[in-house]
Amino acid sequence: MRTFVHGAAVWQVACPQRPSRVAGITMAGFRVRDLDALRMVPHPAVTLLLEFGTGSPVMDHAGRQQRGSVVAGPGVGSGGAVWARGQNVECVQVRLSPVIARAVLGASPADLDGAVVALDDLWGREASRIRERLGEVSSWDGRFALTDALLARRHEAGAPVDPEVAWAWDRIAGGRGLVRIDGLAAEVGWSRKRLWSRFRSQLGLPPKRAAKLVRFDHAAHRLVAGEGAARVAVEGGYADQSHLHRDVMAFTGVTPASVAGEPFLAVDDIAWPSA
Prior knowledge:
With 275 residues, the chain is α+β, with helices and mostly antiparallel strands. Helix content is 44%, strand content 23%. The chain contains 13 helices and 9 strands. The protein has helices at 98-105, 119-123, 125-136, 140-157, 163-174, 184-188, 192-203, 207-224, 229-235, 241-252, 256-259, 263-266, 268-271; strands at 2-6, 9-14, 25-39, 46-52, 58-61, 64-67, 70-72, 82-96, 116-118. A hairpin with a 2-residue loop joins β5 (58-61) and β6. α9 (229-235) packs across α10 (241-252). 42% of the residues are buried. The mean pLDDT is 94.
């Protein structure tokens, strides 16, 4: 377990020693004594927060509060709308590729309706059982193994997305959002209307929004790494630096200079080093 210090933020972070048995699942463990008003920056993955222990995280979103284990679809938190806080927080945070999220969750990311949703509402008693079992395990390796076994079982039993939808997502993600979206339908042999409808209903957002989110995510992490906004804009597919500024403001509610200091992004080098 490593310690992440960023300004006033001090977190303990654990990483699995081996990848998940299911492609598209990554996870990290967090122990935070005082989680004070952390802005949740939108991410292309579906975020699953499995909490255990004595504390409990609180998610503030659009005037509503969710406590305990939660799930959020891709891009949730735009405009700086979601904040996390809590005391003595211990959790396993999972990032699910939208392509496998429907099978794992038992519901499409579109059913989350752009909100932070209590895991109890999706999984019922299974959410309570996994919390109890995680609390009984004494090591992070054990918690990761337990979580991975649960997610793999749910994935195997769940409904997959259409292969054409999965292919379109892979093209967008692999191209860092810099793909010709209007050409995707022709490449899979579908009409534009059909692809847009299936993509949105199965992954939770339309293709153009997905590409914009993926492009932003890469740009934001380059800003955190210390690269200049002008260079990030040019190499990241933005028309100019003002275009980057508007995109970052729309997704986070802060400027590119401010987003470079966001702990939610800065911790990724420790929590998800392969990303």
